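so my prof wants the structure for this chain in the tokens format not the other one, which i didnt know existed until like an hour ago. anyway here's the sequence
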Amino acid sequence: MKFNKWTLGLAAVGVVSMASAARADETNIVTTALSSTSISGYVDVAAQFNPGGGGNGNPNYNFGNGSNGGGKANGINLNVVDIAIDKPEDEGPWASGYHVELWLGPDAATLGTSPISGYSTIKSPAAIRQAYIILRTPIGNGIDWKVGVWDTIIGYEGTTSGNNPNYSRSFGYNIEPTTHTGIQGTYKVSDLLTVQAGVADDSSSGGGGYNPSVNGTGLYYPTVLGLATLTAPDSFGWAKGATLSGGIINTGGSENAGGGATSWYAGFTLPTPVAALKLGGAFDYLNGHPTFGTGFNTFVVAGYGTYQINDKTSFNLRTELQQGQGNDFAQEEITATLQYNLWANVLTRLEFRWDHNEHGDAYLSAGSLNGNGTPEKDAFLFAAQAIYTF
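here's what i got, hopefully its the right format
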């Protein structure tokens, strides 16, 4: 261990001991390493009422209700406690950092990333949502790498509920993978264009059934993924900041060996000449599925709107159409959410959702049966949500 000359001088005249100097030096190293580390997270709770009862009759969107959502119908629920530990990159050309994000509570049981190795479907009340090292390589404008477990790169909505415009998850989110284990790189070509690409040996979805691609011999088929995002510059006037994204995630394999699947995504966000109004849209297409085979396919078209009433209050609207297997099933949903901030650090929402099943057994979001097993075409949700962020 190296000591500075002042420490060596003091030790020579007996003012300090080398052992105490070594302990102090180690303490300084730890303190320096932790000085830029932050702890953050949130507590997500909600109450929801489902007219007509709970059970299989409710639409099966992720983290909502039914078998994919932990049975939250007609109840007051703790959704999840999120704890994140971060050491962000600095501005250096060879910067590094890390991100660890843990989930505790019912939503952790349906995330599909149990900390028990090799058992992603175990219903554990704790989950490693993300855990990755960040590395920068000074190539061009700099490539930032994530190595470990990380959120998927596609989708209009994400796994953090408070970052989405609505409390309940969309049909589109339901058919996308949510988490990958592998390596991903992000490169900012210019202020206009950012690209992301990666490879993973494991992909999962929160309750949606998108499992690791593996055959009977334990051989994994890698997942490859990519996304390009365009961002409108200031010269676009009222449309500055608008985004347009397109991406693909492909998992190898076949219907009899791993069940390959390909997810296509396109989405946009658009400010309007009315400063308080913002619009968005998304298209998701899933071809193939680890459970249902390569012949399975479904698509979702979604529209979003947000109106900022004042600094504390906004109104969010979402409408979707999902169709699958040609026209074997079809369903729609409309969700209206009033979001307001009365308390510091607390986001609160009131939401109404209507799901309508046109025909067929709608994949992952049925709503075609009520709790008694008789035909039911419509399902309704009234919900209140509160998220404290720290």
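also thought this was worth mentioning. The domain at 42-389 is CATH 2.40.160.10 (Porin).
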